[in-house]
Amino acid sequence: MPDPTPPGPATASAPSHATTTPIRILLADDHALVRRGVRLILDREPDLEVVAEAGDGAEAIEAARSQEIDLAVLDIAMPRLTGLQAARELAALRPGLRILMLTMHDNEQYLFQALKAGACGYVLKSVADRDLVAACRAAMRNEPFLYPGAVTALIRTYLDRVRHGEENPDQLLTPREEEVLKLVAEGHSSKEIAEILFISVKTVHRHRANLLHKLGLHDRLELTRYAIRAGLVEP
Fold it and tell me: What residue stretches are annotated with the HTH luxR-type domain (predicted)?
């Protein structure tokens, strides 16, 4: 006779985050009340956990040295070392660490400095309860997170630079260099590229060296990835 007792639902209905290690977060802000409020926002999420706090940039760096963290959430304006200075130090100290800037400043200059310092996201304190959790998760997926106004600022600045001739990606490579890059990415050897373009192998090697130098790349694989991103070849 079959057992009338149905199997317990505990295992089947366990939430997916039950066995997932939470994202370990370092939170740095010189105002204790702000840290407390931000920590409440983060710690109520099962996949996020604040494991260290700091009152300034120097403390943040010390915390990163002594504790295992996945993500640093830094205020921009802090004593001793600012969040921007701390971001630069942390990016050098822990290359795999994700960094978010949390700030009250809706300021283009701060935004650009934060991105240049190594931050992958810029979140305004005024909407932290809406955006911060999503920004943390995006950072750990290696995706940038910017509030809508920041995206507008980036586009406007880029277009201004193009109009003034300061930045024109189309002129970064010469037409011949683009041809060589495309053929390299398609897997052709230097000899094959020379035959296709009716140039010498030595010239192909010179073009490849120029490509690596101009693009700041190191090998054929990185050239191929760049060519895919530039739309020269299909992935």
Answer: 166-231
- Closest by CA position to 103, among listed 125, 136, 127: 125
Phi, psi of 123 (to 5 degrees): -120, 135
H or E, element range at 102: strand 98-103
Closest CA to 204 of 164, 229, 176: 176
d(CA 120, CA 143): 7
Cα(143)–Cα(135) distance, integer angstroms: 9
Give the span between the Cα atoms of 58 and 14, in whole angstroms: 41
Burial of 23-34, coded b for 16+ CB within 10 Å and e otherwise, reads bebbbbbbeeeb
Q: Among 94, 85, 91, which Cα is nearest to 59's?
A: 85
How much is the pTM?
A: 0.60
Crossing angle of the two packed helices 175-185 and 220-229, in degrees rounded to 10: 110
What string of pLDDT tens digits covers the 235 residues of the chain? 444 444 443 333 333 444 578 999 999 999 999 999 999 999 999 999 999 999 999 999 999 999 999 999 999 989 888 899 999 999 989 988 999 999 998 877 788 888 888 999 999 998 888 899 999 999 999 888 887 777 776 677 667 666 665 554 445 788 888 889 999 999 999 999 999 999 999 999 999 999 998 888 889 998 998 888 878 887 7
Of residues 28, 150, 23, the one with CA closest to residue 98: 23
74 in Cβ contact with 28 (< 8 Å): yes
